[in-house]
Design goal:
- There is one protein chain.
- The protein has helices spanning about 15-30, 80-100, 115-125, 140, 150-165, 175-180, 210-215, 235-245, 260-265, 285-290, 310-315, 330-340, 350-360, 365-380, 385-400; strands at about 1-5, 35-40, 55-60, 65-70, 105, 130, 170, 190, 220-225, 250-255, 275, 295-300, 320-325, 340-345.
- The chain is an alpha/beta fold.
- It has two domains: about 1-195 and about 385-410, Glycogen Phosphorylase B (Rossmann fold, 3-Layer(aba) Sandwich); about 210-380, Glycogen Phosphorylase B (Rossmann fold), CATH 3.40.50.
- The chain has an eight-stranded mixed beta sheet with strand order 3-4-2-1-5-6-7-8, sandwiched between helices.
- Helix 3 packs across helix 5 (about 150-165) and helix 11 (about 310-315) packs across helix 14.
Length: about 400
Amino acid sequence: MRILLINQYYPPDTAATAHMAQEVAEVLAERHEVVVLAGRPSYDPAFHHPYYLTRVEANGCGARIRRVGSTAYPRHRMTRRVSNYLSYLSLAFPAAMAMRADLILSMTDPPVAGLLGASVARQRGIPFVYNIRDLYPDMALGGDIVGRGRLVDAWERMHRWALRQASRVIVLGEDMRERIAAKGIDPARIAVVRDGAALGEEVPSGAGQPAREAIRCGFPFVALHAGNLGFYGAWKTLVEAARILDGEGVGMIFVGGGAQREQVAAMAEGIAGVRLLPFRPQAEVPFVLAAGDVHIITVKRGLEGVVVPSKLYGILAAGRPVLAVTAGNSDVARIVTGARCGLVADPDDPASVAAAIRQLRADPERLGEMGRRAREKAREFERGAQLRRLRETVEEAGQQAGKFSCSEHS
């Protein structure tokens, strides 16, 4: 098949979706002709592109990258980020209409990229596959980024229309699958494909490694949140739990940045057990993972299935226990409870978070067993297998439309 993959971000953009788009393009290109329709790099890119109307690149793994000349303002101001989105959409639509394709696969950067993919696929009479990584407008509403009104209601109606156009909808977890089904989409058309993580031969302990020790900040026990401090986390609950634990030798360490970092810092002022540290270089990620006695994953109540934190898989692969500060029906909580590789705490109750951390600290043997179970559970989510599952799902959509025959590639 000739597959058109629509996602604004692509390396040298540093967004997680940029790297995932690259991995998806590469696994599809093993069996198909793939073109990625991206914009000029604007998500904290490793390097910037000069202005152009359009540009074609090869990524060395079989896929071609077609870039349109969207604006590339730094993303940290919302008005400029919206400019990047709108300029990309306005240029990507005519480009997509003119490009040869048997199937369109859309991801969710920008948040309305699915509408673009569905519109082009419908007008051209070709299959559409929708890979949802963050569920909009649900995420914007739940994160208090926008308020409900006629514009958001119209967005929701258009999004449901795009979902109905999709031959397959690919989601990141069972809770997201349930949310999509609740919007009236046939569950048989919804496939769960997790991000997963690569499994190395060894799990580094990091003992004595400077990066690990710097993150631990001298605390005897560390509850670590490593990743984006975005709109979806129960940050107030975590900070208040740290206040309860203050003076008990427990460090609650936040490594990373994000839209809520300043608010977290303000809430934590005066709490000796809280530290906010910057992101570490990619080469030090194994030692970041090794630094936590337990890793915190948090999703605000009501956002389960809207956000599915994919950092879970790297934590499991590193053999670290998990404290899921989420509702009990979230995908993270289900995995942690089923594998017995951590604990679940109420995202609205700081005392339950503090109690869970005390339990874990008081029983090192239990903590070690949770880590071993985490590593074993990670084998179910090996990244290569998940990517191949995604490819199979795309191929099913192509087969259904008569665009692809498995026998041609057997």
